[in-house]
UniProtKB/TrEMBL annotation:
GO cellular component, one term: MBF transcription complex
Name recorded for this polypeptide: Transcriptional regulator swi6
GO MF annotation list: DNA binding; DNA-binding transcription activator activity, RNA polymerase II-specific
Region (Disordered): 113-185, 639-659
Length: 659
């Protein structure tokens, strides 16, 4: 191959575009534009150890497909086109890979050549899914396709030696025609209908072509011998299946592998995605007991679908619908050419859900295959797969395969090569299982530690909340105790005031019974209430003057009483202000002594000290502060309060007697 030129090739049955750069074969798959990340990193001259780290950190974390086994150059990690381009930009190889990255092929030139070039029946068993703009998303699910069904948006950007680079593959049987026949035209029309999925076109075509001599509704339309009904069931085109059946399509027709349309329907996930398999099975259920060239039933194929990564749910979906129908009971324990039943295959693939479905349906568990192994053997030694080569081949045949019309040579691996691949695959599987077991153990250990951490965290959170509640209760208790002391002090002061007033008026102190009968809600001003002066029309002027003088006398007495009360309040205010000034000075002396500062500097410290006190936590123990102040007072820093006379302390607040 010449560097810089783009070639079409087929590796392991997969068609690719290939370009040699720096001696490295860089490939881009024709079906989905996936590129080999390993090859891109090789072009960037990154050594193997660093390539492995880059693949683990940057490539394997996203969407990817890891290929092991098969043709050597095709192996590696395949990633979507956009990610491939980003990887090439990141490592500076976009300019040298630009021809392959920007390459687009004109489908018109391919179709023109395909009518005159060699047609083959390829031995490849790997399906290539066509890309088409109006087809529903298959999520990379394989379904039947022609090798030359390229996307319609491809445009020609080829060199002058394009004809030299793209040559048809050699074949076992070939024929050359100068003009397309009517049968070729019918096949082409059917294929274009499936690529566009327009039921109206299918109906019109069938109505126009049905009954003509050169048209058969069961004609083979691809290189694997599949008919239109095979394609419709595989692509979950239910309306097309019903239309074909109504036009007399043979539901028991088989392709070159002996596979019926019902078998093809369980080999892909399209019917699972569309949840259409019950309708498909209802239309094709008469073929439920058929076997293919390898004596496999639809149950065998449903079990084999579970061996493909990401398809176990679809396989279980198909299997449960199949075994629930009595038509599948006769073939529940049918053995294929290798002696495997559907249950044996499910057990070998470690498909627990498939095994459960088959066992519930009554599948026999002690049937041995030609290797002498039964279900229990595969359960205990799941790694011993004596029929790995056959399982690999059957997995390959799960999809419609076709060889490239432009491949350089047909892919035909030797028996020795197959044995080497099988041996390497066993080693890789053993390493994968060992690594998986270690990873599972570490995950369980991590999960256990995480659960313990969550439990400790929850317990710590509960303890923290409980501590906050206790601190809040302690704070409320301290505040309540302080309020109690304040009330006791106020009560004691009021009692002393009452004693002085009663002694000044030469009246005895009220007893406990008097205090209990006193109405604390009584309005004191009611005793000084003076009614408005009103004169009767019958009294004379002298009587009016006398009543007026008496009213004025009462008003003056009330004024004098209020003035006396105001004077008493003023005296009390002055006394409190004096006490406040004295206590303020005592506090200043205390602060000066504690802070070792002159007393004239204390005023500057009042504001920061206040802020410091206000910033104290809510659990500040006020009882300890009060105890400290009591110690200071006992040491002489504060004057002793007045001595209280030994009278009975009242239990309620009292007021001055109006009398």
């Amino acid at each position: 191959m010449t560097e810089g030129n783009i070639y079409s090739a087929v590796y392991s049955g997969v068609p690719v575009f290939e370009m040699i750069v720096k001696g490295v074969a860089v490939m881009r798959r024709r079906t989905d534009d996936y590129m080999n990340a390993t090859q891109i990193l090789k072009v960037a001259d990154i050594e193997k150890a660093k390539r492995t780290k880059i693949l683990e950190k940057e490539v394997l974390v996203g969407e990817h497909e890891k290929v092991q086994g098969g043709y050597g150059k095709y192996q590696g990690t395949w990633i979507p086109f956009n990610k491939s381009k980003e990887l090439a930009e990141r490592y500076g190889v976009v300019p040298i890979l630009a021809p392959l990255l920007n390459f687009e092929l004109d489908p018109a030139s391919i179709q023109e050549r395909s009518a005159n070039e060699t047609h083959t029946h390829s031995s490849s068993n790997t399906f290539v899914e066509p890309k088409r703009e109006d087809a529903p998303s298959q999520q990379r699910n394989y379904s039947p396709s022609l090798e030359d069904a390229l996307p319609p948006h491809k445009k020609a950007k080829t060199t002058s030696n394009e004809q030299e680079l793209f040559q048809p593959s050699s074949s076992r049987s070939q024929h050359t025609t100068n003009e397309p026949t009517s049968a070729d035209h019918n096949r082409s029309v059917l294929m274009s209908i499936f690529l566009s999925d327009k039921p109206d076109q299918i109906n019109d075509f069938l109505n126009q072509s049905h009954g003509k001599d050169n048209f058969s509704i069961d004609m083979v339309i691809d290189e694997q011998g599949n008919t239109a009904l095979h394609w419709a069931t595989s692509l979950a085109r239910i309306n097309t299946v019903e239309l074909l059946a109504s036009k007399g399509a043979n539901i028991a027709c088989t392709n070159y592998a002996g596979e019926t349309p019902l078998m093809r329907s369980v080999m892909v996930t399209n019917n699972y995605d569309a949840q259409s398999f019950p309708r498909v099975f209802d239309l094709l259920k008469e073929t439920a007991t058929f076997t293919d060239n390898k004596k496999r039933t639809v149950l065998h194929h449903a079990a084999l679908t579970g061996s493909i990564q990401g398809r176990i749910n679809a396989a279980v979906y198909y299997m449960e619908i199949l075994v629930a129908n009595d038509l599948c009971k006769p073939v529940l324990n049918t053995q294929d050419a290798l002696g495997d039943t559907a249950l044996t295959i499910a057990a070998r693939l470690d498909g627990a859900a498939l095994v459960d479905a088959l066992v519930r349906a009554g599948a026999v568990q002690n049937t041995q295959n030609h290797a002498g192994l039964d279900v229990q053997d595969y359960k205990t030694e799941n790694n011993e797969d004596s029929t790995m080569e056959e399982a690999s081949n059957s997995q390959s045949q799960r999809v419609f395969a076709t060889s490239s019309l432009y491949s350089k040579k047909p892919y035909a691996p030797s028996q020795r090569g197959k044995e080497i691949v099988a041996t390497v695959q066993k080693i890789v599987d053993a390493l994968d299982e060992e690594y998986g077991s270690q990873l599972t153990a570490k995950e369980h250990e991590l999960q256990s530690v995480q659960e313990d951490l969550n439990a400790v965290t929850q317990e710590l959170e509960k303890t923290r909340k409980s501590l906050e509640e206790r601190q809040a209760e302690s704070q409320r208790l301290s505040e309540a105790q302080q309020k109690t002391r304040n009330l006791e002090h106020a009560l004691q002061t009021g009692w002393q005031r009452l004693e002085s007033l009663m002694q000044a008026s030469s009246k005895p102190m009220p007893t406990q019974a008097d205090l209990e009968q006193f109405d604390e809600n009584e309005d004191i001003d009611a005793y000084f209430n003076i009614p408005d002066l009103q004169f009767s029309d019958t009294i004379d002027e002298e009587e009016k003057k006398r009543q007026l003088k008496e009213h004025i006398k009462h008003i003056r007495a009330k004024v004098r009483a209020y003035e006396a009360n105001n004077n008493a309040l003023d005296d009390e205010i002055n006394e409190l202000e004096h006490q406040f000034t004295e206590k303020e000075m005592q506090c200043k002396r205390l602060i000066a002594a504690c802070c070792n500062l002159p007393i004239d500097k204390i005023d500057d410290l009042v504001e920061p000290l206040t802020l410091a006190i206000e910033s104290d936590p809510p659990d500040l123990d006020l009882a300890r502060v009060i105890g400290f102040m009591d110690k200071i007072r006992r040491q002489g820093a504060f004057t002793e309060p007045p001595i209280v006379t030994n009278h009975t302390k009242p239990t309620k607040n009292t007021v001055d007697s109006p009398h």
